[in-house]
Amino acid sequence: MGNSTSNLAPASQPGSPLQVCLNAALPSSALSYPQDFMYQTISVDAYNKRIPVIPAAVTTPSTTDDISAILKCAVESDVKVQALSGGHSYGNYGLGGVDNAVVVDMKNFQQFSMDNTTWHATIGSGTLLSDVTSRLSDAGGRAIAHGTCPQVGIGGHATIGGLGPLSRQWGAALDHIIEVEVVLANGTVVRANNETNPDVLFAIKGAGASFGVVTEFVFLTHPQPTSVVQYSYTVELGSYTDMWPTFDAWQTAVGNPDLDWKLASELIVLPGSLLITGTYFGTEAEYEATGFEKAVAANATNVAVSTIDNWLGTVAEWAENEALQLIGGTPSYFYSKSLTITPDNLIPKSGIVDLFNYFEYADPDTLIWFAIFDLEGGAVSAVPQNSTAYGHRGALYYLQSYALGLTGLSNTSMAFVEGISSTIQAALPGQNLGAYPGYVDPLLTDGPSEYWTTNLPKLKEIKKAIDPNDLFHNPQSVPVGA
Fold first, then answer.
1. In 3D, which of 49, 92, 48 has the Cα closest to residue 58?
2. Are 296 and 253 spatial neighbours (Cβ–Cβ below 8 Å)?
3. Which of 102, 252, 353, 368 gives a 20 to 30 Å CA spacing to 225?
4. Residues of 424-439 as b/e, b for ≥16 C-beta within 10 angstroms?
């Protein structure tokens, strides 16, 4: 039994010129089409089930020649292309974000090698973060900064930002990139580094989905941390209106310009509670000397501080925490928004009170919602804004707000998420806070400006030079310069 294709665009129809071209270029095992049995469930498997997407084809190339051939077929049929690595875009942008795109699934690009002289690692763009961690660890006890969800693919993660607990020390994942191999819209395969194709490297480091298909990265690596302190402080005071002083104390503590870069922290508002959690990369004595616990834990009803001496154990605990928040690798119905808070635009106390009143009285219409305030800054902010495409070097912390449903998500739940952001925005009038492109929000009025801010004009010019016909496109990709 196949899928119905009667309502699909011509390129998605059985026997279309696109399918004929792809069939001639790749083996049948590397191709899936809408007419195939359980196409949407097996081949597409959209991460955000709230946004249904039907690609014209899902391809799984094994070589750069395969990718070049796929791009040629897409161009001839005037169909857009998006690469997929892990497939965790909040807007399903790795699937095109809208119907009728050609998906280039990079799961076969798993190459890995380590130069034991320079400690530069070559990693295929289809590698999931769990495998990045283990392969780097096995190759001399090395590590890079990246996020905590093990099922995320490095290809998307490192070309959009790639933020995680180590970012305050080492920078974003994209700050570790020394060189990439990328297939451009005209089918050519190029290397890009600071000396060769530097504009391509600039664009890939923050806006990669708009510019090509990255096949591999060369990363700068670091010795993996040894002693790591994990901490959590839970506040359950019965009412959100009683929790705002804890948020105020946390924001004051993380807003200290002398805050130790070895400290990573999140404040998470959950149904019925508030949690401050994070990692300190050092000893418990060093962590205690920062004074962070004294500053933020006055109202904690539960305190947990422990040392983990095993690096892989630390990463596994991060993954477990991610799974508990239900934003890991499981497809679901959800809506998410992000906001960028800078040291110069902290939420005033009156705005914090308003925010926690909102948490107390607004209707989420779901049992699963949360708001994460995730500390950034440090080494990420030390990199000049115009050195990569990444547009939020000044971020002190990001808000990530979520509402999830198991069988669907109501308009009331989506409005609840919108209200979290609008309450904060109202407390900071006239400020364009911007959004992190790793948490895409298809409902933004002008996503590219929110994501890439002052770097967008340069990105438009690079787009015009290397992808003038906008082959690599999703609903919020970098537009072609005028």
1. 92
2. yes
3. 252
4. beebbeeeebbbbbbb
Q: Are 336 and 411 in contact (CB under 8 A)?
A: no
* Helix or strand (DSSP H, E) at 267: strand 263-270
Helix (H) or strand (E) holding 22: helix 17-25
State the Cα–Cα distance between residues 198 and 201, nearest whole angstrom: 5
Neighbours of 356 (CB within 10 A): 23
Integer Cα distance of 256 and 143 in angstroms:
28
User: Which residues of the chain carry a pLDDT beneath 50?
Assistant: 1-2
**Helix 198-207 vs helix 456-466: crossing angle, to nearest 10:** 120
- Residue 351 CB neighbours (<10 A): 17
Structure tokens at 135: 């392969």
Same domain, 89 and 149: no
Identify any residues that bridge with 40 across adjacent strands, giving them in sequence order.
none
Contacts of 99 (CB under 8 A, 6+ apart): 8, 9, 12, 53, 54, 55, 56
Cα 325 to its chain centre, rounded Å, is 16
Greatest CA span in the chain, whole angstroms? 68
Tens of pLDDT, residue by residue over 403-440, are: 999 899 999 999 999 999 999 999 999 888 899 999 99
**Residue 71 and residue 31 share a domain:** yes
How far apart, in whole angstroms, are the C-alpha atoms of residue 92 and residue 98? 8
For the chain, percent helix, then strand, then coil, each to nearest 5? Answer: 35, 20, 40
CA–CA distances in Å: residue 456 to residues 183, 298, 337, 475: 22, 43, 20, 16
Q: Does 212 fall in a domain?
A: yes
Predicted confidence (pLDDT) per residue in 98-110, tens digit: 999 999 999 999 9
Q: For 30-63, how does the pLDDT look when each residue is reduced to its tens digit (9 = 90+)? A: 999 999 999 999 999 999 999 999 999 999 999 9
Six token digits for residue 108: 């076969």
Left if phi > 0, otherwise alpha if psi is -120 to 50, otherwise beta: which for 238?
A: left
Q: Looking at residue 40, which CATH number applies to its domain?
A: 3.30.43.10
**CA atoms within 13 A of residue 352's CA, in its CB half-sphere:** 19
